[in-house]
């Protein structure tokens, strides 16, 4: 239910966002349309009337002067000009400017007002307009309100020693006000009607588009809900072909990882139970032996011969040693597994270490009537590793080899230089290991069935594997039934600077 609410909420937000974008886009479009339309209208009007001022000078000033003999403005002439212009276009206003841009006369101004004579039009746009002959869109000052800019036509004149400019406003203040009211009202009606119509259709299309675009999201939400309800194997079909392929494939990979982790946890839990059972069994056996023989010594203390007493004590000693070794292995393995032991790597001669181990195990091998051989190639280079951990790994492999090699058999230790590595191989002539069991021998408390009763908790090879792994290497096993077993690993050669 929460997923459906979340989905509906998300879709509602998408719809509202879509409508907000449409509304803002509509407003922006309307404003831009008004601005562009106004600019287009003014530019068109200016282009059409670009020569109006020059035509006026050529026609009106040819026979009649703009100034009388006293230098005063010919108001009658400008009255006729304004009357003719307004008859054609009531938006037009005509101004007579001197060389400095000050307004000399205009019918639309009150010349009795003192501020009228102080009105000065900016001549920079006027001169630019005359030079370009009105080819480009240019805005000039509005004499009625010098802070505003408007379209104009202008031309320079020289009559009876008087120079100045005829400055014609093509869109007067009254015209602009009336046009703006009508134009804005038109666009408001057009914009409002168009916006409403657009919103209705856009809303319908938007909802359909959002439902179409979010179908992949709904699939992901449905898959997550199925997973939450316990269907751990449900996956999104054709995830890589969906619109949200990255999210869908990531979800499938995440679900696979979680399922794999759950399976691993189950396996770990099973191994934990087996570990507890095996530890309990291995601890119980020597403890039972020790306890039984001690009780026998107490009960039959006066009845036992010295030889029996010695045999009982030897059995107790062997059991206690076995118990001590088991506890030591457990402690060592736990530290390796929890990364409490970090290798202290240094360069050393693996050949010297192999000689020491061979010498230490020779007596034990001879006692068990096993032939122990050490084979090394010439000039074995220095290796870079933790000497104590490597020694421990080789000792465990030697113990394992001697344990499973029968009387009259042989154990071969081989040290061989291999380019950038030195390979260590320990091979026995024991019963060998079946192929299906070779992957299990390095797991803690896993012992293969060889038909022989051998003591051991199954931690020796697990410890070897951990030691080799923290040296960034791998332990390899080569074995066939009745053909013996060989364990091999490599160590990096020390590269002197």
Helix content: 40-55%
Provide the succession of SSEs. HHHEEHEEEHHHHEHEEHEEHEE
Give the CA-CA distance, first to last residue: 67 Å
Low-confidence stretches: 1-6, 448-457
Quick summary of this structure?
This protein has 497 residues and is of the alpha+beta class. Helices cover 54% and strands 16% of the residues.
Could you characterize the architecture of this molecule?
The structure is a single chain. The longest helix is centred in the middle third of the chain and has 55 residues, at 245-299. A hairpin with a 5-residue loop joins strand 1 (93-97) and strand 2. This protein has helices spanning 2-48, 52-60, 75-88, 123-132, 173-213, 215-228, 245-299, 306-337, 350-367, 387-404, 460-469, and strands spanning 93-97, 103-105, 139-142, 145-159, 162-169, 346-349, 371-376, 382-385, 410-418, 421-428, 476-479, 485-492. The chain is built from 11 helices and 12 strands. It is of the alpha+beta class and 497 residues long. The chain has 4 domains: 2-44 and 181-213, no CATH class; 50-169, Beta-Lactamase, CATH 3.30.450; 244-336, Signal transduction histidine kinase, dimerisation/phosphotransfer (DHp) domain (Helix Hairpins, Orthogonal Bundle), CATH 1.10.287; 342-492, Heat Shock Protein 90 (2-Layer Sandwich).
